[in-house]
Every structure is written in structure tokens, then in C-alpha cells.
Amino acid sequence: MRKSFIAGNWKLNKQVSEAVETSKTIKEGTKNLSGVDICICPTFTVLKSVYEITKDSNISLGAQNLWYENQGAYTGEIGASSLLDVGCKYVIIGHSERRKYLNESDEIIAHKTLSALEAGLIPIVCIGETLEDRESDKAQKVIETQFSGACKNLPADKFSKIIIAYEPVWAIGTGKTATPEIAEGMHKFIRQLIENKYTKELAENCRILYGGSVTPANIESLMKEKDIDGALVGGASLAPESFIEIVKKSQNK
Ligand code: PEP
Fold first, then answer.
1. CA 88 to chain centre
2. For 224-244, what is each residue's pLDDT tens digit?
3. How does pLDDT run across 95-125, given as a tens digit for each residue?
4. Interval 10-23: pLDDT, tens
5. Backbone angles phi, psi at 38, to 5 degrees
6. How far is Cα 5 from Cα 246, in angstroms, rounded to an integer?
7. CB contact at 8 A, 111 and 117
8. b (16+ CB within 10 A) / e for 79-115
9. What is the C-alpha separation between 146 and 125, in angstroms, rounded?
10. pLDDT tens-digit profile of 143-174?
11. Whole-prediction pTM value?
12. Is the CATH code 3.20.20.70 the one for domain 4-235?
């Protein structure tokens, strides 16, 4: 049985006061919900302030990135220990915006995933094809490469902790959500990849989130699909009311 999971990726938005207000509203709006795991992922600089609001609630804190070393001469970077220190439980790794703007490779993503797990953080590993990949019939190949790249160094006991987010790049921030059928097809494919590399049991237990223009209007149809266990929500997580609605509609899958 896989429990629903909704994560809000705030990207580069919200300074401390707005982040605190948004967190308070989300906390209030989700306080009696138990059939879904909830996570919000703000910018590094507001993590601590958000943690002060969410620490006694059913909302967990996640970061949007980390570096794969915990300390040392890595100017400008933040490691897993620092994220744990400010209350993080989760960390997004390999988001397509980082792959695109920061040239993050599968190799780096593999290091980051292992580093997060070794420190006790739960990675939300993002994989997804571009429109060009899809139109040239390479979507599955790209997903396979990104999946095996990210999991390259992961033994089964470590893999059992991770969450995967299937985020087609063409659906992120575009308003063009993948249809439930397209998303389900890829989630099923990813579950098969997990079974091929690890075991059927790990494939059945792994939570696979969909990400890409999720809104309160489309979350229910996505969540009806057997292999979609939740969502990584960008734009619609910025407005607390819409995030709360998405969370409520994702309970008790
Ligand atoms: C994301 O940032 O991971 C995302 C899916 O964004 P959006 O919901 O805005 O498409």
C-alpha cells in the first residue's frame, strides 16, 4: 500500500515573511488530514523559518537541491548535514530546471542521491523527457537513461527509501499537463525499470509522483491512475488555497 504524497516546490519564490504566512495557512488548512504525506520545499534561506511553523504539524520540510559533500571547500554549496540541521526530511534532486540551467548530469545526480540517503534525507529524484524527446519517440529511452543514471550507485536497501517524480519537461510550468493516460503509461514503465533493476516488491512499494502543471482541477483524474501516487507541484503550490485543495483531493488513494 503506497500512501499519497504531495510536495510543493516553491522554486525561487517567497521571502521569509511570505513563506511564513503561506506555511501557516497550509498548516491550518491541512491540520486534520492523515491520508496523505505533505511536504513543502522552499528556498534555502527560508527553510529554518518555515520549519519553525511546520515542526509541530503533519507537514514535512524539503530542500530543492543539495551538494554531495557535507563540508569542505565547496563555496556556495549546501550539504545534507546542513539541510538536516534546519529540519529537512526530503530533498528534490535532479529537477529539470537544474539539469537545464546548471548542467546537472546523471553522474552528479547519482552522487547527490547517494549522499542524501547516507545522511538520512529522503531524495525526491526527478526524471522527465523534453518535447523533442517525446516527438522523436525517445521518451522511454531518456527516462531509462535518467533512471539508471540516478540509481547507478544505489543498492536495494538504499533505493527502498527514495521517491521518484516523473516530470515531463514539456508539462512543467506550461499549463500542458500530461493526460492521465500518458502519465500512467510512463509511471508503469518506471515501475518496470525498478523491477528489472531491483525486485518486484521494491517496484510495488516505490512512490512515483507526477509533476507538470498539476492544479486542483486535474489532480483527481491523475490520482485515479493506479501507478500515480502523488504529485510534485510547482506553480499551484505557491497559492496556499490551491495547494491545500490539491492535498485534500489526494487523500486516501
Ligand atoms: C515543478 O516545479 O516541479 C513543477 C512540476 O512545476 P509546475 O507544477 O509549475 O509545472
1. 13
2. 999 999 999 999 999 999 999
3. 999 999 999 999 999 999 999 999 999 999 9
4. 999 999 999 999 99
5. -120, 135
6. 11
7. no
8. bbebbbebebebbbbbbbbbbeeeebebebbbbbbbb
9. 10
10. 999 999 999 989 999 999 999 999 999 999 99
11. 0.97
12. yes
Euclidean distance between CA atoms 203 and 21, whole angstroms: 38
pLDDT above 80 for 253:
no
**CA distances for 170 relative to 43, 127, 139, angstroms:** 24, 12, 11
CA 241, distance to chain mean position in Å, is 20
Domain spans of the chain, in order of start: 4-235
Closest ligand 1 atom to Cα of 211: 5
- Determine whether 95 is an active site residue: yes
Ligand 1 pocket check: which of 232, 237, 242 to mutate, most ligand atoms within 8 Å of Cβ?
A: 232
- The residue whose C-alpha atom lies closest to atom 8 belonging to ligand 1 is 234
Which of 97, 104, 129, 167 does the annotation list as catalytic? 167
Nearest to residue 111, comparing CAs of 71, 153, 143, 145?
Answer: 153
Is ligand 1 within 6 A of the CB of residue 234? Answer: yes
Say yes or no: CB of residue 96 within 6 Å of ligand 1: no
Task: Please tell me the distance from the alpha carbon of residue 57 to that of residue 236, in angstroms, as a whole number.
Answer: 21
Q: Is 201 a catalytic residue?
A: no
What does the radius of gyration of the chain's CA atoms come to, in whole angstroms? 17
